[in-house]
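Throughout our pipeline, every protein is held as a single compact record rather than as scattered files. Such a record has a labelled line for the sequence and another for the backbone structure tokens. The remainder of this section carries one protein's record, kept here as part of the documentation:
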Amino acid sequence: MALTNSQYDQIMRTYERKQRDARLALEQEKAALYAAVPALKELDDQIAAFSVSQARLLLAGDTGALETLKNRLAQAREKRARLLAAAGCPSGGPQLRYDCPDCRDTGYIGRERCHCFKQAAIDLLYTQSNIKTILESENFDTLTLDYYSDRPVDPSTGRSPLDNARIALKACRSFVEQFDSAFQNLFFYGSTGVGKTFLSNCVAKALIDSGHSVLYFTSFQLFNILEESKFHGDADAKRQQNDLFTCDLLIIDDLGAELSNSFSVSQLFLCLNERLLGRRSTVISSNLDLDKLFSTYSERSFSRIISSYMLLKLTGEDIRLKKRTH
């Protein structure tokens, strides 16, 4: 996912701090060990001094200096291991400790960004959008179907609110499990408070935890970004618009709550179409039923949703109200 220069610099400063902290911790650990075992400090100083002297001899043309150094270092390592063992330390002595051993807290493996860098970018984006706190309480681990009733049963489908919730939950888990192997999109619809946003957040949390880039916007936020980018040339909005099209998963919450006009209708189609062409998944939730969705947005957008999204209807009473009364 694209980062602004300031966001990139912020992440790299974090890696620099980690490296400084690791070096400081190592020096403190060495100082404590040397204080406890003075003979170890003396031995390490001797090894360092002898290595320098032999290097000078080698540069001066003494071909036997390297072999002498190897023999002396082998003897010193054995003595050092004995001193460390007596002090109850590992044979190698104090070592640098990394948060990420794969990249050694540099953020890169070769020329590629490490998985920890990618996760740091995701965490930064979510921290800045204030959604991370929500995901701590709304995820698969905290989800319960206890608030869905097995009555009434819809005569047209033969399903109760509980049945619908189970179907939606199964679809969400499958969506996450197959995310890297199967291109899918989800569309949750139903009345207010039936769990659409909660399920979207469950999906978001699971994919963030597996290192995928996920962006969440209410429909109002989405169209505001697109408006600022198109009509005002706002740099941050332009960056966010690019992120809308390139993130692994885009979540559009509460579609239909915004003030609908020709601009929002055309921009919704643009967003949906761009992501479909790029085979990047989208999750949408809306209080609108399908008839209202068709009449509010263009036939083109409606067609994209009907043909390319798994439609998941949630029914029942307002769960938020139920929680307040329990």
Q: What stands out?
A: The longest strand covers residues 249-255. The chain has a mean pLDDT of 88. Strands lie at 108-109, 112-113, 186-189, 214-218, 249-255, 281-286, 310-313.
